[in-house]
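**Protein of interest**
===
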Amino acid sequence: MANATVLGAGAWGTALALLLAERGERVALWTWDPEHAQAMQAEGENRQFFAGFPLPESVQPTSELSVAFDDADLVVLVVPSHAFRETLERARGVWPAQATIVSATKGIENDTLMLMTEVLVDVLGESVRARSTALSGPSFAQEVAQGFPTNVVVAGIDHELTVEVQKRFASERFRVYSSEDPVGVEVGGALKNVIAIAAGACDGLGFGHNTRAALITRGLAEISRLAVAKGGDPLTLAGLAGMGDLVLTCTGELSRNRTVGVELGRGRSLSEVLEGLGHVAEGVRTAESAHQLASRLGVELPIISEVYRVLYEGKAPREAVRDVLGRPLKREWELGP
């Protein structure tokens, strides 16, 4: 049996641990909280974040990094983006040197404005660049664990290693495509959460299907624009990590980011919404970093900028919609900066 480590025992981390276990792997499921690890060991499931899905014997919860990394040849990172660097720094002393790395975290680091694979290299060194991949796509954790057919994409600069990861995760119900564009895959996975907040806000305001369809389409244009500015391939954003994940997150009832937007559109404050959510909504933090990254790269992101103003400057959602629609008229496709 192969040995995998999943860092992050939220819903998505647990779903991926169950998927790898189903593929015949021994999986260490790491959480930073010793009490959480003990509860999972005692109860045989992750009741705190993913109740109803029993953990098989091949999935071993732990809060000890040295135990989690024992004989691991695959490390899957599923911690929130704001804890990504801290987790890597904490793990650096016991990190398995030759392990393949899969980042399944979707976000852009605040302050540094780095993608998650860029943070990996920044903390662990240049030697991990070729061993690092990014996994993304339309994949609610609950539906993956339920065995609903799901398609995702994994991207890395080393084609052979990327194909190995592809085969390691793929099953009859979890189809994995490969890509050589980790930048495009990561930008798509991060920014779709911000667009989903906007889509939710429009739903909360009572707008209709026309509005949602336009928002998704123009949101994709913004995501593609930033990906190209970062060196990504616009074609990637027409696929699973772009349009696929964007549609799911903007329309699915299980989307936390869409839920944040819906409640903001209904007039609740951000602090009230986040207090009642109980889970991380990556789009809230990513809105700030994406807004700043676009400014640094000279890229115009009207929807994302308005989401930033609603979240961090107290702008009313209805006013934000008015300002997006009231901009000067222009051509539909302008991918460059």
The radius of gyration is 19 Å. The chain has two domains: 3-180, 183-325.
